[in-house]
Design brief:
Enzyme class (chains A, B, C, D): hydrolase
Catalytic activity (chains A, B, C, D): Endopeptidase action with P4 Glu or Asp, P1 preferably Glu > Asp, P1' hydrophobic and P2' Ala
CATH superfamily of chain A: HybD-like
Largest interface: A-B, 46 and 46 residues
Order of helices and strands of chain A: HHEEHEHEHHEHHEEHEHHHHEH
Largest sheet of chain A: 9 strands, mixed
Subunit structure (chains A, B, C, D): Homotetramer.
Distance between the termini of chain A: 52 Å
Organism (chains A, B, C, D): Paenibacillus donghaensis
Keywords (chains A, B, C, D): Hydrolase, Protease, Zymogen
Oligomer: homotetramer
Helix content of chain A: 25-40%
Strand content of chain A: 15-25%
Radius of gyration of chain A: 20 Å
Shape of chain A: globular
Chain lengths: 332, 332, 332, 332
């Protein structure tokens, strides 16, 4: 039984999940990976810094900063909570920009990755549509811009199957011509667990790497490729069937494992490591086809809510003139 | 470990799957359940007749006729195949009507169940929109109707959460006032396997029963309630996470079971019956919430294709004047 | 030149416009039609009472109460103004219910008329989707309903072309079975002027009459037909090309008419009455077809905004527990 | 009364209408403008060549080739006619490419201009979505491409208000990086008459000029700017209120003008030239705002039909392997 661990490490796009997998059930701290957790009002914020090469290798994530908001109750439809999450996201994103040295004057290009025709992949385009765009005013009437508005442009480049062109090539063409200081790329992610879907937001300063997100990107959006800082905002909107299965096996293990002869119930499935088990599941599922990516059936509504949260938060974080009292005026 | 088998028997809305579960891996024939299978051009047609109370109990399905079309390749996007499926469906549906004694003059009310805002639940409303409706002409200008068109009306009654009224109550109100001879109800179903999603169509003369389909119906659409024959057309568009997990365990069993000590690998999971295992999985998954209904991420496109197939097939089956050459003119 | 005035009186669905047309440019008061105007924050509220048969004949409107909100700036995209309009609408609607004797305990059926596939005709279905529906809780768990929520159900019955059944027949079937005390019908209207489109809301206690609204209704939704009070809420979303043309001719007359020999410029078009001129325009336009109903190109966005205003206002007016601070939680 | 003719000459984007306006009611031939008309099956094809500077000045159009398909019955919903138009369009477009020297091997970038959120402006993005895209296969697996497929990519760059970047800048960035041989730009146009809306298709080899189409483009897509041939495909989907009014006045003139004293009826409106009258109308309408662009209320359905016709036609014209029998397989 060959275990191609490399392959499965992409099964989650969340650094937090990678870290948890690497830590195992004992939650052993990982050298080179610093963590800071805060929780209030049902919103858990985890600030992860992958500081060393060793830390990076241990969790299979690039060196960089990762902030994750987890809000398990987000799918409950409480609009008060939604607003709170949006404000927390705005606060964290603003701090994130400052921490990595991006000033208030930097001009921004927001890139909404994904396919607007595939609901769980439409997060990026939806955020673009609700972002407060100002670059045209800077070009056409620079003298008349009120204070408090930063120069922001945005693009939803579509997906390779619809355009025939890699998103990163389109973005690079636009970067060459419009010279933004920073890219903020929004992407729908895959998660290991159904519960994370549309309840978790990840901010990272490592850009978008090939193979991450839902679509099959072959080239990424990174500082190396584009020459400017690339911040990625991701929300899990799908998960793989294999990770669901694996999750359940893990839960079974915990469920029966309390002082009981789990091995009797689960056989070898009890013994092997999580990675090995995932591999096993994958070996079984593979022949069924590539499309075993699933999403909750209410995805249409969830995706609108989360896109609105991200766009409102971005508008507030990027423009001083936008605050919780008027942020609603800029989204649909 | 208490196994509430009753509960899980609703996990599939397909009679074919119920039968397969009841038969077990040996495919033992079930007394009182007659089966006829035909396969051509990648389309498998199974005509199931649950003829006796014993047969009904054995597979947990009402006495009645069930025709199932299975087309595994349907999600591949081949429009030639789509047309072939539509024609086969039209042919089978026309025969089905005749077999259960519904003549060419019977007037029809098509009921599109489900929620048009939730993509995997929007099959019914989509079929309604693409159905050829003629009742208004029968009311307004009965003398001018060309031969070959039957009297057809349609309604998408919405879902309880949006209307506050049970679909069946809305339908009954309409039946009382417009007096159709027969109801054809279209509904999105839950299946046991992801592969069946949008590749399988079931026709049944047992109406819609409470608890079936995606939504939580408390009253059904049946001959007993409405006083006229109710034919149900269903397409699986979601499946439960628990059934996916269970499926994989079954596949594992088969995968390793060929002459190998499966028990070693899977422990008790190898021994217990499918129903028990499903129960076990469910016991573990339950605490996660009720929303573990999943759908493939490309559902937006799949649902349009299958709705078009069903609507075209219906139009062709119901109106003699509609045939493969002009059927496209009536759908969008 | 035969002037079929009857025909053209349907060219506006707004009582306010009918009254203005009847008054002529001199704004002569009309006996039997009482008017009360209030204006604040850019919102003009006109409360019109057509009290006598003579008044009804003079303006071509049924005896009854009409409240109109006019907000010319509404299409400007100011979300603060949108909220203000929603609150004003809620306030006026609540007063309207009390004035015509509908108490806080009356159960309501909201009817969203129109076709959800035709953007300017989708107002009704959109309002239904954003209404706070409670009837199901009254049916399923009457003891657990918090105070401040009225019994409300809703239906979007579709249009004759899609269902083959008159909206009024569907509604009557539902009324027979669910016994609401009052109907509130939402409909998209035709106006005489493009500027009124999506900037005006009309409330009336006369129900929906055949031929009003965008679709071609042959039967209405009125107290006479349904046996319960029918309140109509309408928003103009289209206008006829002929009324645009006529409007411009009128404006020309005013434009050049200040002490100038208008007759020289406009010939007979200057002399004839508005009704005659409209007839003339119509005589010319008729041969072009029936589809000369036009709408602004940005209708997609406008319609969402106004549907949200009406739904929020309704939710607030119908349920004491809904107020400006939490109203957003009930709409999408 | 100052007549700013320059301003109004942009009121139509159709060369055919410009020519007709320049010709006047006598249809005087215009030197330097050659015309070839063919009509069959209810489809009128006009091939216009603006050959000289004088011809260009006379009709206010750039020197170049224009092919226009007019199909008055197209909005009737006849799917047989739709297919015929698609085939005629494919035939004309293929000939057009050859005539202007674009060979079968040239690689193409299709640019879908416009805003996908504004229905009448969504033609371009809709065509992009239904175009057969192959460039990714040329990049990833050049050896495995079947004969008969040309290298085609596509982009819907969005509109300035949503992106903050001119469409032409985005396109130029993509051209720089992907080096297509030819651009085909699809754009929604404004027409002088409501009847032309979604019934007329224009092909031109002059690219997209600033100010043309629905959006307010400040830079164009032309050979001068992009360095490669730019073919424009346009469909009128809106018209200006002022042109409707003007049209009606013209019709009135013709209506009453047959041997009657029109001047008596229409005064000066009878005397002045079409351009002057349009100016007059505009002077009156201007104060009402900029949004007096109107579209038929059924635009949602019309736009889907015409986008499908254009996309199918393009697929057939660009790829030899696509023909009338399989063209449906490539559009949605």
């Amino acid at each position: 039984m060959s275990l191609d661990l490399q392959l499965y490490s992409v099964r989650t796009d969340l650094a937090l999940e990678s870290k948890e997998m690497a830590q195992g059930p004992q939650r052993t701290p990982i050298p080179g990976v610093n963590e800071e957790v805060e929780e209030a009002d049902g919103i858990k914020v985890t600030r992860l810094a992958v500081a060393t090469e060793a830390g990076s290798q241990a969790i299979g994530r690039a060196i960089g900063n990762y902030v994750t908001l987890e809000v398990p109750a987000l799918r409950g439809g409480d609009s008060g909570l939604q607003q709170k999450v949006s404000e927390t996201f705005a606060y964290e994103f603003e701090r994130f920009l400052l921490r990595i040295g991006i000033g208030k004057e930097s001009s921004i290009l927001i890139v909404g990755l994904g396919n607007w025709n595939v609901t769980p992949d439409s997060l990026g385009p939806l955020v673009v549509e609700n972002s407060l765009i100002t670059r045209q005013f800077y070009e056409l009437m620079p003298d008349q811009i009120s204070p408090g508005y930063r120069k922001v442009s945005a693009i939803a480049p579509g997906v390779l199957g619809l355009t025939g062109i890699e998103s990163s090539e389109i973005v690079q063409g636009i970067v060459d011509r419009t010279k933004p200081d920073v890219i903020i790329a929004i992407d729908a992610l895959a998660s290991r667990s159904l519960e994370r879907i549309n309840t978790t937001i990840q901010i990272a300063d490592i850009g978008i790497h090939p193979g991450s997100g839902i679509g099959n990107k072959r080239r990424g959006l990174t500082r190396e490729i584009l020459g400017i800082p690339c911040i990625a905002i991701g929300v899990p909107t799908v998960c793989y069937a294999s990770t669901i299965v694996n999750n359940v096996l893990e839960m079974m293990k915990n469920h029966f494992g309390q002082g009981a002869p789990t091995k009797e119930i689960m056989g070898m499935l009890d013994d092997i490591s999580e990675q090995e088990r995932l591999s096993l599941v994958k070996e079984v599922l593979e022949p069924l086809g590539h499309d075993l990516i699933v999403t909750p059936k209410e995805i249409d509504e969830f995706i609108e809510v989360i896109a609105n949260i991200v766009a409102s938060g971005l508008n507030e974080a990027l423009h001083d003139a936008v605050d919780p009292d008027n942020v609603g005026a800029y989204t649909h």
